[in-house]
């Protein structure tokens, strides 16, 4: 043995098991305190100038988190005067796009447009899969 080294006070296997348990409990506690909202449209939508919309949020005095999609230039050039851009409520935008997607999927001609080189049985399969209930 070298100076300062000694036999372990706690068995290494027991130490590892306790550490894993502590880590598991810590992540559960964090998840309960701050539920994460996924920004479904991140990187997929743009404003009238072609600037991408970036997820952002604010909090009310009561601590309610309000999510938005904001023109990226408003974040990148924060503090500059006379900047115009979009600030759209995330919940409303995601709900409207989900409604539009469902209406396109429900359109009887959608599967045929999607599968240009397919026969009737393949188109019917796509239509039956597209008409299932989904949470867009």
| Global shape | flat
- What profile does the largest beta sheet have? 3 strands, antiparallel
The helix/strand order is HEEHEHHH
Oligomeric status: single chain
Percent helix: 40-55%
* Cα separation of the termini: 63 Å
> How many strand segments?
3
Derived from helix and strand composition plus strand pairing, the structural class reads: alpha+beta
Question: What is Rg?
Answer: 26 Å
Relative strand content: 5-15%
> Strands of the largest sheet, in order across it?
1-2-3
Number of helices: 5
| Low-confidence blocks of residues | none
Mean pLDDT: 81
Concise synopsis of the structure shown:
With 136 residues, this protein is of the alpha+beta class. It is built from 5 helices and 3 strands; from the N terminus they run H-E-E-H-E-H-H-H. The N and C termini lie far apart (63 Å).
Structure in words:
- There is one protein chain.
- By secondary structure, the protein is of the alpha+beta class.
- The chain contains five helices and three strands.
- It has a three-stranded antiparallel beta sheet with strand order 1-2-3.
- Strand 1 and strand 2 form a beta hairpin.
- The longest helix is centred in the N-terminal third of the chain and has 22 residues.
- The relative contact order is 0.08.
- The model has no long low-confidence stretch (mean pLDDT 81).
